[in-house]
Design brief:
The complex is a heterotrimer of chains A (254), B (114) and C (88). Chain A contains ten helices and two strands. Chain A is an all-alpha fold and 254 residues long. In chain A, strands 1-2 form a two-stranded antiparallel sheet. Chain B is mainly alpha-helical and 114 residues long. The longest helix of chain B has 32 residues. The radius of gyration of chain B is 19 Å and the shape is elongated. Chain C has 88 residues and is an all-alpha fold. Chain C has one domain. The chains are: A mainly alpha (254), B mainly alpha (114), C mainly alpha (88). At the A-B interface, helix 1, helix 2, helix 3, helix 4 and helix 6 of A face helix 1, helix 2 and helix 3 of B.
Protein backbone atom coordinates (compact mmCIF):
# COMPACT_ATOMS: atom_id res chain seq x y z
CA UNK A 1 0.00 0.00 0.00
CA UNK A 2 1.43 3.39 -0.93
CA UNK A 3 2.05 6.04 1.71
CA UNK A 4 -0.66 8.26 0.22
CA UNK A 5 -3.22 5.46 0.44
CA UNK A 6 -2.19 4.71 4.01
CA UNK A 7 -2.56 8.36 5.05
CA UNK A 8 -5.93 8.56 3.29
CA UNK A 9 -7.15 5.48 5.09
CA UNK A 10 -5.93 6.88 8.40
CA UNK A 11 -7.68 10.22 7.76
CA UNK A 12 -10.98 8.29 7.77
CA UNK A 13 -10.21 5.52 10.26
CA UNK A 14 -8.19 7.52 12.81
CA UNK A 15 -10.93 9.96 13.90
CA UNK A 16 -13.47 7.12 13.85
CA UNK A 17 -11.21 5.10 16.13
CA UNK A 18 -10.81 8.08 18.47
CA UNK A 19 -14.60 8.51 18.67
CA UNK A 20 -15.10 4.79 19.39
CA UNK A 21 -12.42 4.87 22.09
CA UNK A 22 -13.91 7.97 23.73
CA UNK A 23 -17.40 6.42 23.68
CA UNK A 24 -16.01 3.20 25.15
CA UNK A 25 -14.00 4.92 27.88
CA UNK A 26 -17.05 6.97 28.90
CA UNK A 27 -18.50 3.70 30.17
CA UNK A 28 -15.59 3.28 32.61
CA UNK A 29 -16.01 4.42 36.19
CA UNK A 30 -14.99 8.09 36.51
CA UNK A 31 -11.35 8.73 37.43
CA UNK A 32 -10.80 8.23 41.14
CA UNK A 33 -14.00 6.22 41.63
CA UNK A 34 -12.59 2.72 41.30
CA UNK A 35 -15.29 0.05 41.52
CA UNK A 36 -13.20 -3.11 41.32
CA UNK A 37 -13.25 -5.62 44.15
CA UNK A 38 -10.14 -7.69 43.44
CA UNK A 39 -7.62 -4.97 44.25
CA UNK A 40 -9.42 -3.94 47.42
CA UNK A 41 -9.58 -7.53 48.64
CA UNK A 42 -5.87 -7.94 47.92
CA UNK A 43 -5.11 -4.76 49.86
CA UNK A 44 -7.20 -6.04 52.76
CA UNK A 45 -5.88 -9.58 53.09
CA UNK A 46 -2.34 -9.51 51.73
CA UNK A 47 -0.60 -8.35 54.89
CA UNK A 48 -2.27 -10.92 57.15
CA UNK A 49 -2.12 -13.83 54.68
CA UNK A 50 1.28 -13.33 53.06
CA UNK A 51 3.16 -11.04 55.49
CA UNK A 52 4.33 -8.73 52.69
CA UNK A 53 4.01 -4.97 52.96
CA UNK A 54 4.31 -4.10 49.25
CA UNK A 55 1.05 -5.24 47.63
CA UNK A 56 2.43 -4.93 44.11
CA UNK A 57 5.30 -7.34 44.72
CA UNK A 58 3.00 -9.65 46.65
CA UNK A 59 0.64 -9.79 43.67
CA UNK A 60 3.47 -10.14 41.21
CA UNK A 61 5.37 -12.96 42.89
CA UNK A 62 2.69 -14.75 44.90
CA UNK A 63 -0.99 -14.25 44.13
CA UNK A 64 -0.45 -13.77 40.38
CA UNK A 65 2.83 -15.67 40.18
CA UNK A 66 1.50 -17.89 37.40
CA UNK A 67 0.78 -14.79 35.31
CA UNK A 68 4.32 -13.60 35.94
CA UNK A 69 5.61 -16.95 34.67
CA UNK A 70 4.02 -16.17 31.31
CA UNK A 71 5.37 -12.62 31.25
CA UNK A 72 8.81 -13.88 32.13
CA UNK A 73 8.83 -16.24 29.17
CA UNK A 74 7.71 -13.45 26.82
CA UNK A 75 10.83 -11.62 28.00
CA UNK A 76 12.92 -14.72 27.46
CA UNK A 77 11.53 -15.30 23.96
CA UNK A 78 12.06 -11.66 22.95
CA UNK A 79 15.69 -11.67 24.09
CA UNK A 80 16.33 -15.00 22.35
CA UNK A 81 14.91 -13.44 19.19
CA UNK A 82 17.20 -10.42 19.50
CA UNK A 83 20.26 -12.65 19.99
CA UNK A 84 19.31 -14.83 17.01
CA UNK A 85 18.67 -11.89 14.70
CA UNK A 86 21.82 -10.01 15.58
CA UNK A 87 24.31 -12.87 15.54
CA UNK A 88 26.92 -11.96 13.03
CA UNK A 89 26.08 -12.73 9.45
CA UNK A 90 28.39 -14.74 7.27
CA UNK A 91 29.89 -11.76 5.43
CA UNK A 92 30.86 -10.13 8.67
CA UNK A 93 33.49 -10.83 11.24
CA UNK A 94 34.30 -9.46 14.63
CA UNK A 95 36.67 -6.55 14.65
CA UNK A 96 38.64 -5.64 17.71
CA UNK A 97 40.13 -8.34 19.87
CA UNK A 98 42.20 -8.58 23.02
CA UNK A 99 44.89 -6.58 21.23
CA UNK A 100 42.75 -3.45 21.46
CA UNK A 101 43.23 -3.37 25.22
CA UNK A 102 39.68 -2.63 26.20
CA UNK A 103 39.29 0.48 24.04
CA UNK A 104 36.89 0.98 21.14
CA UNK A 105 35.78 3.63 18.74
CA UNK A 106 34.62 6.13 21.35
CA UNK A 107 37.30 5.68 23.94
CA UNK A 108 37.90 9.41 24.36
CA UNK A 109 36.77 9.55 27.99
CA UNK A 110 38.56 11.89 30.40
CA UNK A 111 40.31 10.58 33.51
CA UNK A 112 37.62 12.01 35.77
CA UNK A 113 34.88 10.24 33.83
CA UNK A 114 36.82 6.98 33.94
CA UNK A 115 37.26 7.21 37.71
CA UNK A 116 33.67 8.23 38.34
CA UNK A 117 32.31 5.41 36.19
CA UNK A 118 34.42 2.82 38.00
CA UNK A 119 33.03 4.20 41.26
CA UNK A 120 29.51 3.99 39.86
CA UNK A 121 29.69 0.28 39.05
CA UNK A 122 29.67 -1.05 42.66
CA UNK A 123 27.21 1.65 43.79
CA UNK A 124 24.65 0.81 41.10
CA UNK A 125 25.08 -2.94 41.65
CA UNK A 126 24.55 -2.47 45.40
CA UNK A 127 21.39 -0.45 44.74
CA UNK A 128 20.15 -3.17 42.39
CA UNK A 129 20.73 -5.92 44.95
CA UNK A 130 18.92 -3.81 47.56
CA UNK A 131 15.91 -3.28 45.30
CA UNK A 132 15.70 -6.99 44.40
CA UNK A 133 15.93 -8.18 48.02
CA UNK A 134 13.53 -5.61 49.50
CA UNK A 135 10.81 -6.25 46.94
CA UNK A 136 8.35 -7.56 49.51
CA UNK A 137 8.86 -4.56 51.81
CA UNK A 138 9.28 -1.40 49.75
CA UNK A 139 8.73 -0.45 46.09
CA UNK A 140 10.94 -2.69 44.02
CA UNK A 141 11.35 -6.34 43.17
CA UNK A 142 12.91 -8.53 40.55
CA UNK A 143 11.88 -6.57 37.47
CA UNK A 144 13.06 -3.13 38.61
CA UNK A 145 16.07 -4.41 40.54
CA UNK A 146 17.17 -6.52 37.59
CA UNK A 147 17.13 -3.45 35.37
CA UNK A 148 19.26 -1.51 37.86
CA UNK A 149 21.65 -4.46 38.22
CA UNK A 150 22.09 -4.61 34.46
CA UNK A 151 22.83 -0.89 34.40
CA UNK A 152 25.77 -1.35 36.79
CA UNK A 153 28.32 -3.05 34.49
CA UNK A 154 27.19 -0.74 31.71
CA UNK A 155 28.74 2.20 33.56
CA UNK A 156 32.07 0.80 32.28
CA UNK A 157 30.86 1.88 28.85
CA UNK A 158 31.06 5.51 30.00
CA UNK A 159 34.76 5.03 30.58
CA UNK A 160 35.16 3.75 27.03
CA UNK A 161 35.89 0.27 28.35
CA UNK A 162 33.40 -1.66 26.32
CA UNK A 163 35.73 -4.58 25.56
CA UNK A 164 36.61 -4.85 29.25
CA UNK A 165 32.88 -5.08 29.92
CA UNK A 166 32.67 -7.79 27.28
CA UNK A 167 35.42 -9.75 28.97
CA UNK A 168 33.70 -9.32 32.34
CA UNK A 169 30.32 -10.43 31.00
CA UNK A 170 30.76 -12.58 27.87
CA UNK A 171 27.68 -13.57 25.90
CA UNK A 172 27.82 -17.17 27.04
CA UNK A 173 27.67 -16.11 30.71
CA UNK A 174 24.77 -13.72 30.04
CA UNK A 175 22.85 -16.41 28.19
CA UNK A 176 23.36 -18.75 31.14
CA UNK A 177 22.22 -16.02 33.57
CA UNK A 178 19.10 -15.35 31.52
CA UNK A 179 18.21 -19.04 31.18
CA UNK A 180 19.05 -19.75 34.82
CA UNK A 181 16.69 -17.04 36.05
CA UNK A 182 13.85 -18.25 33.84
CA UNK A 183 14.40 -21.88 34.85
CA UNK A 184 14.72 -21.02 38.55
CA UNK A 185 11.36 -19.24 38.47
CA UNK A 186 9.64 -22.21 36.84
CA UNK A 187 11.32 -24.63 39.27
CA UNK A 188 10.30 -22.54 42.30
CA UNK A 189 6.74 -23.00 41.07
CA UNK A 190 7.42 -26.72 40.95
CA UNK A 191 8.54 -26.50 44.58
CA UNK A 192 4.98 -25.43 45.39
CA UNK A 193 3.71 -28.52 43.58
CA UNK A 194 6.00 -30.77 45.62
CA UNK A 195 5.62 -29.23 49.09
CA UNK A 196 2.13 -27.68 48.96
CA UNK A 197 0.63 -29.77 46.10
CA UNK A 198 -0.31 -26.64 44.09
CA UNK A 199 1.88 -25.16 41.34
CA UNK A 200 3.40 -21.77 42.31
CA UNK A 201 2.00 -21.90 45.84
CA UNK A 202 4.09 -20.59 48.68
CA UNK A 203 5.89 -23.39 50.53
CA UNK A 204 8.21 -21.43 52.84
CA UNK A 205 7.55 -19.94 56.30
CA UNK A 206 6.05 -16.45 56.02
CA UNK A 207 8.23 -14.67 58.58
CA UNK A 208 7.43 -11.46 60.45
CA UNK A 209 5.93 -8.63 58.36
CA UNK A 210 8.47 -5.89 57.77
CA UNK A 211 11.49 -8.16 58.16
CA UNK A 212 13.82 -8.92 55.26
CA UNK A 213 12.95 -12.63 55.28
CA UNK A 214 9.19 -12.24 55.11
CA UNK A 215 6.62 -13.08 52.47
CA UNK A 216 7.67 -16.71 52.00
CA UNK A 217 9.04 -17.57 48.56
CA UNK A 218 8.44 -14.07 47.18
CA UNK A 219 12.06 -13.15 47.84
CA UNK A 220 13.31 -16.22 45.93
CA UNK A 221 10.98 -15.50 43.00
CA UNK A 222 12.18 -11.92 43.05
CA UNK A 223 15.83 -13.04 42.89
CA UNK A 224 15.08 -15.45 40.03
CA UNK A 225 13.32 -12.74 38.02
CA UNK A 226 16.08 -10.28 38.93
CA UNK A 227 18.74 -12.62 37.52
CA UNK A 228 16.74 -13.16 34.37
CA UNK A 229 16.10 -9.46 33.76
CA UNK A 230 19.78 -8.66 34.40
CA UNK A 231 20.92 -11.31 31.93
CA UNK A 232 18.24 -10.35 29.41
CA UNK A 233 19.04 -6.65 29.36
CA UNK A 234 22.83 -7.03 29.41
CA UNK A 235 22.53 -9.53 26.55
CA UNK A 236 20.30 -7.20 24.51
CA UNK A 237 22.56 -4.21 25.12
CA UNK A 238 25.79 -6.02 24.33
CA UNK A 239 24.29 -7.59 21.19
CA UNK A 240 23.29 -4.15 19.91
CA UNK A 241 26.55 -2.49 20.99
CA UNK A 242 28.51 -5.28 19.29
CA UNK A 243 26.69 -4.47 16.09
CA UNK A 244 27.30 -0.75 16.47
CA UNK A 245 30.87 -0.78 17.76
CA UNK A 246 32.62 -4.00 16.79
CA UNK A 247 31.18 -5.79 13.77
CA UNK A 248 32.09 -4.45 10.34
CA UNK A 249 31.92 -5.97 6.92
CA UNK A 250 35.02 -7.85 5.95
CA UNK A 251 35.73 -5.71 2.88
CA UNK A 252 36.02 -2.67 5.13
CA UNK A 253 38.75 -4.16 7.28
CA UNK A 254 41.48 -4.50 4.69
CA UNK B 1 -12.35 16.83 34.35
CA UNK B 2 -12.53 13.25 35.59
CA UNK B 3 -12.31 12.08 31.96
CA UNK B 4 -8.88 13.69 31.46
CA UNK B 5 -6.69 10.56 31.98
CA UNK B 6 -8.82 8.58 29.53
CA UNK B 7 -8.70 11.47 27.04
CA UNK B 8 -4.88 11.50 27.31
CA UNK B 9 -4.86 7.72 26.70
CA UNK B 10 -7.01 8.18 23.55
CA UNK B 11 -4.76 11.01 22.35
CA UNK B 12 -1.56 8.99 22.85
CA UNK B 13 -3.07 5.96 21.09
CA UNK B 14 -4.33 7.86 18.04
CA UNK B 15 -1.28 10.14 17.77
CA UNK B 16 1.10 7.19 18.02
CA UNK B 17 -0.91 5.29 15.42
CA UNK B 18 -0.70 8.30 13.09
CA UNK B 19 3.07 8.25 13.54
CA UNK B 20 3.17 4.54 12.64
CA UNK B 21 1.08 5.14 9.52
CA UNK B 22 2.86 8.29 8.33
CA UNK B 23 6.43 7.21 9.10
CA UNK B 24 9.05 7.02 6.33
CA UNK B 25 11.64 5.50 8.64
CA UNK B 26 11.24 2.11 10.32
CA UNK B 27 13.07 3.28 13.47
CA UNK B 28 10.52 6.08 13.79
CA UNK B 29 7.73 3.53 13.31
CA UNK B 30 9.03 1.50 16.23
CA UNK B 31 9.32 4.59 18.48
CA UNK B 32 5.75 5.65 17.64
CA UNK B 33 4.60 2.13 18.47
CA UNK B 34 6.08 2.58 21.94
CA UNK B 35 3.97 5.75 22.34
CA UNK B 36 0.88 3.71 21.38
CA UNK B 37 1.85 1.20 24.02
CA UNK B 38 2.32 3.86 26.69
CA UNK B 39 -1.32 4.89 26.24
CA UNK B 40 -2.31 1.58 27.85
CA UNK B 41 -0.22 2.48 30.92
CA UNK B 42 -2.08 5.76 31.39
CA UNK B 43 -5.43 4.02 30.87
CA UNK B 44 -4.76 1.14 33.28
CA UNK B 45 -3.34 3.30 36.06
CA UNK B 46 -6.20 5.76 35.54
CA UNK B 47 -8.74 2.97 36.01
CA UNK B 48 -7.08 1.70 39.19
CA UNK B 49 -6.70 5.08 40.91
CA UNK B 50 -8.96 6.03 43.84
CA UNK B 51 -9.23 9.67 44.79
CA UNK B 52 -7.11 10.47 47.84
CA UNK B 53 -5.78 6.89 47.73
CA UNK B 54 -2.27 6.03 48.89
CA UNK B 55 0.30 3.83 47.17
CA UNK B 56 -0.40 0.13 47.96
CA UNK B 57 2.47 -0.21 50.43
CA UNK B 58 1.37 -0.73 54.01
CA UNK B 59 4.74 -0.40 55.72
CA UNK B 60 4.09 3.05 57.16
CA UNK B 61 0.38 3.74 56.74
CA UNK B 62 -2.48 2.75 59.07
CA UNK B 63 -4.30 -0.36 57.85
CA UNK B 64 -7.61 1.50 57.51
CA UNK B 65 -6.35 4.09 55.01
CA UNK B 66 -7.50 4.09 51.41
CA UNK B 67 -5.12 2.37 48.94
CA UNK B 68 -5.15 2.36 45.12
CA UNK B 69 -5.59 -0.88 43.16
CA UNK B 70 -2.29 -2.81 42.95
CA UNK B 71 -3.48 -5.20 40.20
CA UNK B 72 -3.21 -2.69 37.35
CA UNK B 73 0.18 -1.62 38.68
CA UNK B 74 1.46 -5.19 38.40
CA UNK B 75 0.24 -5.38 34.80
CA UNK B 76 1.91 -2.09 33.85
CA UNK B 77 5.11 -2.81 35.76
CA UNK B 78 5.85 -6.07 33.98
CA UNK B 79 4.72 -4.66 30.66
CA UNK B 80 7.22 -1.78 30.80
CA UNK B 81 10.12 -4.20 31.20
CA UNK B 82 8.83 -6.50 28.46
CA UNK B 83 8.10 -3.54 26.17
CA UNK B 84 11.79 -2.62 26.22
CA UNK B 85 12.86 -6.08 25.05
CA UNK B 86 10.10 -6.29 22.43
CA UNK B 87 11.22 -2.92 21.04
CA UNK B 88 14.76 -4.30 20.98
CA UNK B 89 13.44 -7.25 18.94
CA UNK B 90 11.71 -4.90 16.49
CA UNK B 91 14.86 -2.79 16.14
CA UNK B 92 16.88 -5.95 15.49
CA UNK B 93 14.42 -6.68 12.67
CA UNK B 94 14.91 -3.12 11.37
CA UNK B 95 18.70 -3.55 11.38
CA UNK B 96 18.33 -6.83 9.47
CA UNK B 97 15.90 -5.26 7.00
CA UNK B 98 18.40 -2.47 6.40
CA UNK B 99 21.13 -5.02 5.76
CA UNK B 100 18.97 -6.80 3.21
CA UNK B 101 17.28 -3.92 1.41
CA UNK B 102 19.70 -1.07 2.09
CA UNK B 103 16.92 1.23 3.27
CA UNK B 104 14.78 1.89 6.33
CA UNK B 105 11.84 3.29 4.35
CA UNK B 106 8.87 0.91 4.64
CA UNK B 107 8.07 1.60 0.98
CA UNK B 108 11.35 -0.05 -0.06
CA UNK B 109 10.64 -3.34 1.68
CA UNK B 110 9.94 -6.19 -0.72
CA UNK B 111 8.85 -9.74 -0.04
CA UNK B 112 11.77 -12.11 0.55
CA UNK B 113 12.43 -14.35 -2.43
CA UNK B 114 15.36 -16.55 -1.54
CA UNK C 1 -8.00 14.98 40.86
CA UNK C 2 -5.02 16.98 42.07
CA UNK C 3 -3.14 19.76 40.34
CA UNK C 4 0.00 17.62 40.14
CA UNK C 5 -1.90 14.90 38.30
CA UNK C 6 -3.40 17.36 35.83
CA UNK C 7 0.01 18.91 35.15
CA UNK C 8 1.66 15.50 34.73
CA UNK C 9 -1.10 14.41 32.33
CA UNK C 10 -0.62 17.61 30.31
CA UNK C 11 3.15 17.08 30.09
CA UNK C 12 2.66 13.43 29.06
CA UNK C 13 0.14 14.42 26.37
CA UNK C 14 2.53 17.08 25.01
CA UNK C 15 5.53 14.75 25.22
CA UNK C 16 3.77 11.93 23.38
CA UNK C 17 2.73 14.36 20.65
CA UNK C 18 6.31 15.66 20.39
CA UNK C 19 7.79 12.16 20.04
CA UNK C 20 5.36 11.41 17.20
CA UNK C 21 5.71 14.80 15.48
CA UNK C 22 9.53 14.94 15.22
CA UNK C 23 10.83 13.10 12.17
CA UNK C 24 14.57 12.92 12.86
CA UNK C 25 15.10 9.62 14.76
CA UNK C 26 18.07 10.99 16.72
CA UNK C 27 15.98 13.83 18.19
CA UNK C 28 13.17 11.38 18.71
CA UNK C 29 15.35 9.26 21.00
CA UNK C 30 16.02 12.28 23.20
CA UNK C 31 12.34 13.21 23.28
CA UNK C 32 11.34 9.61 24.03
CA UNK C 33 13.68 9.64 27.02
CA UNK C 34 12.17 12.90 28.32
CA UNK C 35 8.69 11.56 27.64
CA UNK C 36 9.55 8.46 29.69
CA UNK C 37 10.60 10.59 32.66
CA UNK C 38 7.32 12.54 32.34
CA UNK C 39 5.46 9.21 32.39
CA UNK C 40 7.39 8.20 35.51
CA UNK C 41 6.32 11.45 37.21
CA UNK C 42 2.72 10.71 36.21
CA UNK C 43 3.01 7.24 37.75
CA UNK C 44 4.23 8.81 40.99
CA UNK C 45 1.24 11.16 40.92
CA UNK C 46 -1.01 8.12 40.39
CA UNK C 47 0.48 6.51 43.53
CA UNK C 48 2.39 3.82 41.64
CA UNK C 49 6.04 4.00 42.81
CA UNK C 50 6.85 0.46 41.64
CA UNK C 51 5.81 1.28 38.10
CA UNK C 52 7.66 4.60 38.14
CA UNK C 53 10.85 2.84 39.23
CA UNK C 54 10.89 0.51 36.24
CA UNK C 55 9.84 3.28 33.83
CA UNK C 56 12.73 5.50 34.96
CA UNK C 57 15.37 2.85 34.27
CA UNK C 58 13.85 1.75 30.97
CA UNK C 59 13.39 5.26 29.60
CA UNK C 60 16.64 6.72 30.91
CA UNK C 61 18.92 3.88 29.89
CA UNK C 62 17.25 0.77 28.49
CA UNK C 63 15.56 2.09 25.36
CA UNK C 64 17.85 5.00 24.33
CA UNK C 65 20.93 2.78 24.35
CA UNK C 66 19.30 0.16 22.13
CA UNK C 67 17.90 2.74 19.71
CA UNK C 68 21.15 4.71 19.48
CA UNK C 69 23.11 1.52 18.81
CA UNK C 70 20.62 0.52 16.08
CA UNK C 71 20.81 3.99 14.49
CA UNK C 72 24.61 3.90 14.52
CA UNK C 73 24.62 0.47 12.92
CA UNK C 74 22.26 1.64 10.18
CA UNK C 75 24.37 4.74 9.54
CA UNK C 76 27.57 2.70 9.35
CA UNK C 77 25.94 0.42 6.85
CA UNK C 78 24.80 3.36 4.74
CA UNK C 79 28.30 4.81 4.73
CA UNK C 80 29.91 1.56 3.64
CA UNK C 81 27.28 1.26 0.89
CA UNK C 82 28.16 4.74 -0.35
CA UNK C 83 31.85 3.83 -0.39
CA UNK C 84 31.10 0.65 -2.33
CA UNK C 85 29.12 2.53 -4.98
CA UNK C 86 31.78 5.27 -5.14
CA UNK C 87 34.56 2.71 -5.75
CA UNK C 88 32.74 1.22 -8.72
Amino acid sequence: MSRRARLGLFACAGPALAVVLVLGFRGLPAFGHYHGVYGLVVNGVELSLRHATDMVTALNFDLRAFDTLGEEFILFAAVTGVALLLRELRDESQRGSAADDGAHSFSGASDGLRGASLLLVPLIVALGVYIVLHGALTPGGGFQGGLVLAAGPLAALLAGRYLALKRLAPHAALEVLDALGAAAYALLGLGGLVFASIYVKNFLPLGIPGHLLSGGFMALNSIAVGLEVTGAFLLTWTEFLDQALLIRRRSERS
Amino acid sequence: MSFLPYAVAVWLFVAGLWGVVASRNLVRTVLCLSVVQSSTYVLLLGVGYRSAGRAPIVADVPVVSKLVDPTVQVLVLTDIVIEATVIALLLALVVQAHKRFGSVDPADLRPLRD
Amino acid sequence: MTVVQIMALAVVALGGGAVVAVSDPLRQVLLLSIYGVALALLFFAFQAPDVALSEIVVSALGLPLIILAALRKIRQHERSQDEDSGAR
